[in-house]
Design brief:
The protein is of the alpha/beta class. Helices cover about 45% and strands about 10% of the residues. Strands 2-3-1-4-5 form a 5-stranded parallel beta sheet, with helices on both faces. The longest helix has 28 residues. It is globular, with a radius of gyration of 20 Å.
Length: about 290
């Protein structure tokens, strides 16, 4: 197979700028060119196996450089409806790298303490440390998505947050954090199938919430909200990528490739030793 099996760079195939959310094909596999003999899913699974060591090596270099004083980091922002595959990305993509170099944060309903602060307070506290691959499972975008759809704050309040978020992300980027924002977009039909699977399996009941069904009634409102998020917060320093998530294998491959691309742009190499290697070799042989 070709090295990456992408007909165009993944960052071009998935960039959210100009994407019409309401018409988005959640079953598509944009840019992916499978081996005809193997088929799409098998090609992707084999490719993921090939690319995991590449991702792990780049992430280890990031971590090593952070330990040596390099201030840079990478942040993956994961947004999507329930069952869209955020947890699977964390397990199957982020799970392939060294956990020492991962800063993971999941943003649920704000706690009482968090509500006493500005909505970005809890997010700033979770930005990845130097050398870390940060992961936000949901994020500050809940404060222009959920709060909008459910009228939790007045429109004039959530509307001003777009500019605040852009300023927040620009500052993070200028401080050395490479930001990759991913929206996992899933169809109602595929979500129904995944929710039914959770109901069919007792070991998955803990992941099911009756509110997941209630949210399905708001899909049009969420599409409108995501459209404005893409239109107003897709920037060169913090780009959005819209990923069709009906096929888990495609979403996982796409995020793997996006992270590889982000890490490669840092042009990382192994940090130089801060000691005389030959001297330490001689000491070791005498010990």
């Amino acid at each position: 197979m070709a090295k990456t099996n992408w007909s165009v760079p993944v960052t071009e195939a998935l960039r959210a700028a100009g994407v019409p959310v309401a018409e988005f094909d959640t079953s598509a596999t944009p840019g992916f060119r499978p081996d005809k003999k193997l088929g799409a899913k098998k090609s992707a699974e084999l490719l993921i196996d090939q690319r995991r060591p590449v991702l792990a090596d780049l992430q280890e270099k990031l971590y090593a450089n952070g330990r040596s004083g390099d201030p840079r980091s990478v942040l993956l922002v994961l947004q999507g409806m329930d069952t869209s595959g955020k947890g699977g990305i964390v397990r199957h993509v982020i799970g392939s790298v060294d956990p020492q170099g991962v800063d993971h944060a999941a943003f649920g309903v704000p706690t009482a303490e968090e509500r006493r602060h500005h909505y970005l307070w809890r997010v700033r506290r979770q930005l990845p440390r130097p050398g870390q691959l940060g992961v936000f499972d949901r994020s500050h975008y809940e404060d222009v998505l959920v709060v909008r759809v459910h009228d939790l704050v007045p429109p004039d309040m959530w509307r001003k947050r777009f500019a605040e978020i852009n300023a927040f992300e620009r500052k993070a980027a200028e401080s050395g954090t490479t930001i990759v924002k991913v929206a996992l977009l899933i169809s109602l039909e595929e979500q129904r199938r995944r929710l039914e699977q959770r109901l069919d399996r007792p070991e998955k009941h803990w992941k099911f919430s009756p509110s997941d069904i209630d949210e399905r009634a708001h899909v049009a409102a969420y599409q409108e909200a995501y459209q404005e998020v893409f239109d107003l917060t897709d920037t060169e320093y913090a780009p959005w990528y819209a990923i069709p998530a009906d096929s888990k294998w495609y979403a996982r491959l796409a995020v793997t490739e996006l992270l590889i691309d982000a890490l490669q742009t840092l042009k990382l190499d192994w940090p130089a030793a801060h000691f005389d290697v030959e001297e330490q070799r001689k000491r070791l042989r005498k010990s």
